[in-house]
Amino acid sequence: MMRLDEPSVTEVRLTAFTNPSIKSSSSIVPAMLLNIRLFARAKDLAGSETIAVELPEQANVSDLKSSLLEQYPALEPVIRNLHVAIGTDYANDAAVLNESQSISCFPPVSGG
């Protein structure tokens, strides 16, 4: 049983996403759980077609890529050029994410 003065799992996971300008260690931002679909080599490297990633609210695509690399180091060969789509549109690194979106990631593809 967890004591009231112990941090929750969510608080521990999100310490990297606290606002660095706030000096208090108790500053925790609300979290969201994103279900991410992976394709092609990204799916193979991660070992799964669908993964769940927890990020702070108002996280963007750049935050997602950083979290993916942290949670799935095997994605390192493709993370730099990884395409992220929100719904049917490509998203740039500044695009803000939310739980209601359909998010997909895939490396560049070629072929004819």
What does the model show?
The chain is an alpha+beta fold and 112 residues long. It has a domain at 30-106: Beta-grasp domain (Ubiquitin-like (UB roll)), CATH 3.10.20. It is built from four helices and five strands, in the order H-E-H-E-H-H-E-E-E. It has helices at 9-13, 40-46, 61-71, 76-79, and strands spanning 31-38, 50-56, 83-86, 89-90, 103-106. The chain has a five-stranded mixed β-sheet with strand order 2-1-5-3-4. Strand 3 and strand 4 (89-90) form a beta hairpin. The chain is globular, with a radius of gyration of 16 Å. It starts with 8 loop residues before the first helix and ends in a 6-residue tail after the last strand.
Architecture blueprint of SSEs:
Layout: H1 9-13, E1 31-38, H2 40-46, E2 50-56, H3 61-71, H4 76-79, E3 83-86, E4 89-90, E5 103-106
Parallel strand pairs: 1-5
Antiparallel strand pairs: 1-2, 3-4, 3-5
Features:
alpha+beta, five-stranded mixed beta sheet, globular, single chain, disordered N terminus, 5 strands, 112 residues, 4 helices, Ubiquitin-like (UB roll)
Q: If you average the pLDDT, what whole number results?
A: 82
* The level-1 CATH class of the domain at 30-106: Alpha Beta
User: Largest sheet, if any?
Assistant: 5 strands, mixed
Q: Which strands sit side by side, in order, in the main sheet?
A: 2-1-5-3-4
* E-strand count: 5
Per the principal axes of the C-alpha atoms, what is the gross shape? globular
Low-confidence stretches at least 5 residues in length (pLDDT < 50)? 1-25
In short:
The chain has 112 residues and is of the alpha+beta class.
